[in-house]
Every structure is written in structure tokens, then in C-alpha cells.
Protein 1
Amino acid sequence: MTGRLCWISVVFLSIAALCSARETVCLKTGFCLEADSHSQEKDSVLCYIGAGTLEIPAAQISTIEGTSDDPGPGAKSRLKEGAPTIEEVIRRAAIEQGLPADFVTSVAKVESGMRPQAISVRGAVGLMQLMPATGADLGVNPQGERDNARGGAKYLRTLLLKYQGDSVLALAAYNAGPNAVSKFGGVPPYEETRRYVVKVLREYERQQKRHTQTGPTERP
């Protein structure tokens, strides 16, 4: 495990500059997607997502906003209604699966910015960005935020058990799939996957620092 942590340190130092905050690009139709960054060329906007690029006509875009750590006004309003916030939904799902709540929360932040309505260009949906087929395998409805959180936490637990608690491999498999991890005998040499692992681990470290005064450090 020490060697793997050293590897992560090297990767972190080499690609930290690429790990910028994600953006939320919303179209006038109401559809939103997550991107790492964007640029504009004439009448089109190029959204950079991992190693790929998606071109969207500028006239179809409503807003482009940086994804913040704040889950948004929708989550805050739940407090007034007596319903659990998005963060609470995720933490409960983590506890049900026996996982550190900060770890699952970190995955949700990187995957969707804690947005239940997030949809990726590949068709992954919800807080934990589950593919419909993955949701079906897990017995959950990805469209429902509680089911989505429960399914994502359950899938993370399955991967952590598969890789004997190795969070790096579990995160790589969550992003690229277990078959890719098996094919390369470790973290796949995909820029998107390596950036993803670093982003989640960095967010997890930040989450832990926030809670240093509330109890012992959690570990996945």
C-alpha cells in the first residue's frame, strides 16, 4: 500500500494543474452536464470532459457555472421542509453500507457536484452518476436520489471488497470499470481515470480536515 500511495503522490504532483474545478453546462432545454472546462469558437462551445470534447451550439446553452462545494439552494430548502439534505441522503447511504460517509460524499462531489439531476454525456445519472444498467444490477432506480445514493455506496462497497480495501483501485474501477483494472493489472493508463482518482482522494482529504474536531479520521 505504501508503494501505491507514493504512486498517487507522483500522479498528484504531475497532474494537479489539470484538476481544476468542474463546470455545470445547462442547455435551454433544461438538460445539464458536467465538464472540466470549456472554450468558445465562433458559434460553438467546446466542453472538455475527461479526455473527450463535446461541441455544443452556443445558442443552445443557457448557463455555464462553476461547480461549488455547496450542494445548492435545493438542498438548503429541504431543511425548512423537514426533509433530509442531499448530503444527509448520501451520508445515510454510506452508513448503511458500512463505509466512511466522507468517502462516499467525496465521490458524489466529484461525480456530480452533489446534483441529483446531473446527467453525463455517457448517460450516467444522479448523485453517484450510475449507468442505468448498473442501477438495474444493484436493484435501485438511478433516477431517485435516495436509490441513487444507496446504489452508488453499495457499488463502492463491492469494489472495496473486491480489491481488499484498496481505495485507489476501487475508485479506478468505479470510473473506468473493473474490466479495465483487470486488463491493465492496476489503475488504467487513462488520463480521465487518473485525474478522477486524484480528485476524489483530494476531496476526501479535505472532507476529513473539516471533521478533525468532530471525531476520529475515517478511512475507506
Protein 2
Amino acid sequence: MQTLSQDITTAFDDLLANLPEDKRYLLGLVGAPGSGKSTTAALLRQRALSAGIRAVVVPMDGFHMLDEKLRQIGIWELKGVPESFEARAFVDLLQRLKSDTTNDIACPAFDRSIEAPVPDAISVSSQDQLVIIEGNYLLLDTAPWSEIAGILDTIWYLDCPTDILRQRLIERHMAGGRNAEDARRKTQETDMVNAARIATGADRASKRFCIS
């Protein structure tokens, strides 16, 4: 079971101790598919709640295009690439989370059991002090993704050994219904290609942590 490393725990505790009182703080977690973003985000949220700080997690995966649309534009087999997300809608939501702190804001989530986004599954309250945004492409340098770095308060990069990434992703795809051969092909031809692209933004993160 994944736990928080000492370095990320120390960095997060320092962040919590210095949260501004007059605005909502947006922390980004970025990394390759399978790097542990969702688990890390959940653990950080729980740590914040234990410290008496209201926190919520908003995943980029809630902005996956629907499979029907992906098939229509011919990229269903490439699901997970930047072009398979509703990027403009995601960036607009982040901007609203940053600027609108008086209203509750509904955000989508992603249900892996049906491989589809679920609208309005998450509510960010006006009382939430910390929003943890987790996703693959927070540091991508192409529009509109490139706007994200100017919206979030800080972005942390989660690094993970390639062999661990590959095994996690194969297991994830098989759990989603693919056979072993298809799972390996999807991992190698889509996920690992995406991972290499995501890694090009690592140096633009404010902090970098090794997750295994």
C-alpha cells in the first residue's frame, strides 16, 4: 500500500502551515499515468483534514472525452493522450476555482469501472481552503494546457520508476477488461509515450518527489 514519503510529508506540512487565509490555494500534482497521483492526492487530503484544514481533490480525468466522441474523431485507441481531453473546459474550471471563492463549484470525476467521466460528482465548497488538482498534463507547454501553470499556486511532480509504471498500467488495463496482450500494447503504445511527453515538463515543477 502506498504511503507518503518523508520528503513529501515535510513539504506538505510546510505548505499547510503557510496557507493564505484570504484565498483558496490550488496545489497541482502531475506525473505519468500510474505514478500514484490519485493515491497521493487522497493521502494528502486526509492529512490536511486531520490538521483541521478543509481540502478537496479535483482530478483532471473528469475531463476525458466520452468514448463516443473519441470514436467519432478517430482517437479512441489513443484515449489518454492530451487531445482526448476536454482541455479548454478543464482550464476554465481551474480558473473558476481560483477566482470564485464565494460559490460552491461542481466538478466532474472519472469512474474507472465504466471508463467514463461522471458530471458534478465533486463539490468544491466556498469553505474549502485547499484544492488538490491531480493530472497528467498540468505542465504541458501547448495551449490551452500551458495556461495551467499560471493558475495553480504550485505544482509538484511525482516521479516513478518506469518498470513500476509499466506493471501498474498493465494491471489497470486488465482490470478494465483488456486481455494481457492488449493491456501490454496499450501501455507501451499510448501510456509510456504519454509518460515521456509528461516528463518533459518535470523541470518546470516547483518540487519533485519520487513515488514508488
Protein 3
Amino acid sequence: MDFLEKLFNIKNKVVVITGGSGVLGGQMAEGFLNAGAKVILIGRNEEKLNKKVKELNRTKEELIAIKCDVLLEEDIIRAKEEIISKFDRIDVLVNAAGGNMPGATVNLNETVFDLKFEEFKKVVDLNFYGTVLPTFIFGKTMAENKAGSIINISSMAAQRAITRVVGYSAAKSAIENFTRWMAVELATKYGDKIRVNAIAPGFFITEQNKSLLLNNDGSITERGKSIINMTPFKRFGYPEEVVGAVLWLASDASKFVTGTVIPIDGGFSIFSGV
């Protein structure tokens, strides 16, 4: 193995991906599997998990799925125990569970004051606390081993004021702060081999945002057109385009990188529109 291969090597790393049955989570899982990692998909919908496992078509030594609600502490502890029993350790945690919810979206004929607080709270709980709880429970195992990489998922909604998705935006902003805080906490108390970073995807077509970006006939909505106009690449992202950054953050190629939030957005976050 030459120097570059060793630097980027993640073969046999044990990778836990919450939200692993989703579009981006599933794509990251495929990327890790192709790189030789052992992958555990976490999700609360057993049917979707099984479908994703079937699609990825790997042996049980390479890929398993565990039904688990990232908002239930007892579920995560049970999942952690199952993973440790089978693989003995956790090397990488990708907190990909999340997404917006229709009830927490300000409709075109509404204002923010029309939102029900319960719906706002649901989307904050899923995105923020659904990242905090797995980080505390799976991350403790990494801390005990004094090694590991935690990768959170932020969003352009944390970096720019994206209309209509106030709860989602607030949760993703909290994730960015939590990423920096945990990076400092873990490094100062457990050493330089445990790192916490985040990626901030731009606009990708997922189950949660499809109705906001695409019409029923597949054409782009007015909101989608506005996004593309503000994106120098003039298109939405492809799910596989998040994989390279995630693999880099999981490998020793980024071993002096912690507390960062990396945009994967086709230039959306830097473009003024002029």
C-alpha cells in the first residue's frame, strides 16, 4: 500500500449511518462499502431499511441494518450493544437522520405565526436531538477507544436565511454549533485521534424536499428555479456528490481536521446573485 492509499484507507472501518435508508444516507453507505468499510444502517422504518440492504446487496459481514429510533435513548443503547458485540468497535458515525417535515413548513398562503409549535418542535427534535443522542451514545464508545470520526449533516439552511423552513433552519444551525463544541470537548479530553466535523449539503432531491423543488410532472418549481439561479453550477446536486467529502472526513487524510463545516453546494453559499 503506497502513501496515498494508506492515507485514504478506510477498509474494515466500522461505520454507523443513522438515516441510512434515506437518499443521502444510502448513497454514503454505498460509498463506504465500495471503499471496503463495514456498514451499519440505522433507521426507524424497518421496511425501508430492508429495502436499502437488498439494494446494496452485500454480505452480513459487510452490511447490517438495525431498527432504531434516534430519539429513543434505549433504542440507541441497544443498537450500540449489538454493534459492539458483532464488530467490537465503532470507528465512524454519520448522523444522517433528519429532514424537513410538511407540518413545519410555512405554506405560501401562511406566515410563520400560522405554524403549530408542536410541528416546529418535531422537526427540531428529529434533526438536532436526533444528532445529539447518537453522538452521546455512539461517541462515548469512540471516546473510550480515544479514536473515531463523527460526521454531522448541516444544511444551506443554517448558513443562509432559507424561507419557509424555520424549524429545519434552526435545528441545522444548532448542529453546526454542536459540531464545533463537541470537536473541542472530545479533542481536549480524549486526544487528537477523535474528531467531529460536518458537511452542509446544498440542494439535492430527497423525499423530504421533493414537493418543494419539483412539480408532479417532474418540472422544477418556482422555488427550485430560484435555488438554481443562486447556484453557480446551475443545477441541483447528485447524491453521489456527497460521498467524497464524507470518505475524506472518515479517513486519516483529514486527521488534522476537526470542528469544520464543509459546504457541498455547487457554490450556493458563496454566490451573492450578482
